From TrEMBL:
UniProt KW Glycosyltransferase keyword: no
Matches recorded under Pfam families: Peripla_BP_4
Predominant cellular place of this UniProt entry's protein: other
Family: Belongs to the bacterial solute-binding protein 2 family.
Compartment(s): Cell envelope
Organism: Paraburkholderia caffeinitolerans
Molecular function GO terms recorded: carbohydrate binding
Tree of life domain: Bacteria
SUPFAM superfamilies with a match to the protein in the record: Periplasmic binding protein-like I
Signal peptide annotation: 1-50
Name of the molecule in the record: Periplasmic binding protein domain-containing protein
Record's keyword terms, sorted: Signal
Residue ranges of domain Periplasmic binding protein in the record: 57-315
UniProt xrefs under InterPro entries: Peripla_BP_I, SBP_2_dom
Length: 361
């Protein structure tokens, strides 16, 4: 604003003075322009940069999970580093209808871009359509929409989650019943993990599958698992699709049923989770669970903001390898997904300092 007002005053001065004065004023105006250009070259303040692209809204699916709590904390850190001017994050409390309302509210508050973790892959299309009509860019994090325009989907390969969990259990359980505690099947994440685990388990004919559709709700998972274990006390393995919501209820249920034995005990139930939160790492160290797939909360926040900033600057991307150890694929015409790495964490690498779950203080 200071540079702009200076330029206006210089022009006014030029118009009202003598020829000699006007020449001097033109030189002054050029000097102001040069200073402004110099400031732009060395990097204007974050607020000035943000003013050029507009504010960014942040939509959280829920905050009851340690995973999303960590993601939310990372957003503030990376927004500051990148100079992204963000609105206060909004929590939709796992309600797809509320999420649509929240996104519309962010647009009404002046958001030119939105980074959102879709709750329902299909329902989010309504909000995406509304955003597109108002030329608001959207980046989807963690969950891909089934339709609708997004600048990028930032996500790990969720089919690989199910496959990694299945292979670990298949290698450590020779025969018996295996339980899959599923996420919300209205979410592409829940479907991908469930389908991949189910398909992979067919490679282990001595294992039989039992499933619990829990919709990312810990209380639902606990109640269903309690009933299932009453009828099937000989369960040998459990795959939890989200440690952030299922870890504590599952361990509490096993403990109450007197079925929680440490790794190495012949009665131990092999347990693999998803998320990579500190609580899972502690459970691995204690021998309560065997492994988890580290879903990169830090990278979701970092690259969610990276891609929304790029979209607001008019940048586009193509399928292929990235410079941050991931691959951009085409999900469907017009929708790209940056598939970020998600390693399997076991007793052998649980203390790796590069894992985001070990960086939280």
């Amino acid at each position: 604003m200071a540079f702009a007002s200076g330029l206006i005053e210089a022009r006014r001065f030029t118009e009202t003075r003598t020829p000699r004065a006007r020449a001097f004023s033109r030189a002054a105006a050029k000097t102001l322009c040069a200073v402004a250009a110099c400031a732009a070259a060395i990097g204007a303040p974050a607020s000035a940069q943000a003013a050029e692209t507009g504010k960014v809204g942040l939509g959280l699916p829920l905050l009851t999970s340690p995973f999303w709590q960590s993601y939310n904390n990372y957003l503030g850190t990376y927004a500051k580093q990148m100079g992204v001017d963000v609105l206060a994050p909004v929590n939709s409390n796992n309600d797809p209808a509320q999420q649509i309302t929240d996104m519309n509210n962010m647009i009404n508050l002046g958001a030119k871009g939105i980074v959102v973790g879709p709750i329902d892959s299909a329902a989010i299309s309504r909000a995406l359509e509304s955003a597109a009509q108002k030329n608001v860019k959207v980046v989807a994090v963690d969950v891909a929409p089934t339709q609708g325009a997004v600048a990028m989907v930032v996500r790990a390969d969720n089919r690989a989650y199910g496959e990694k969990a299945c292979k670990y259990i298949g290698e450590h359980v020779k025969s018996g019943k295996v339980v899959q505690i599923m996420g919300d099947l209205a979410s592409v994440n829940g479907r991908d993990r469930s389908e991949a685990f189910r398909a992979c388990l067919k490679s282990y004919p001595n294992l039989s599958l039992l499933e619990i559709p829990a919709g990312w709700k810990g209380d639902v998972a606990a109640s269903a698992l309690d009933s299932l274990l009453t009828a099937n006390p000989d369960v040998k393995g459990i795959y939890m699709q989200a440690g952030g919501v299922y870890l504590s209820p599952t361990l509490q249920t096993l403990r109450r049923k007197q079925l929680l034995f440490p790794v190495g005990d012949p009665k131990h139930i092999v347990i693999v989770s998803n998320d990579g939160i500190p609580q899972e790492y502690e459970a691995i160290r204690k021998g309560e669970i065997d492994a988890t797939v580290s879903q990169p909360a830090d990278l979701y926040a970092k690259y969610g903001l990276y891609y929304i900033k790029a979209a607001l600057e008019g940048k586009t991307f193509k399928p292929g390898k990235t410079d941050h150890d991931s691959t951009i694929i085409q999900l469907q015409p017009g929708i790209l997904e940056d598939q970020l790495p998600a390693p399997l964490v076991t007793k052998q690498n649980v203390d790796d300092k590069n894992l985001w779950g070990n960086t939280i203080k």
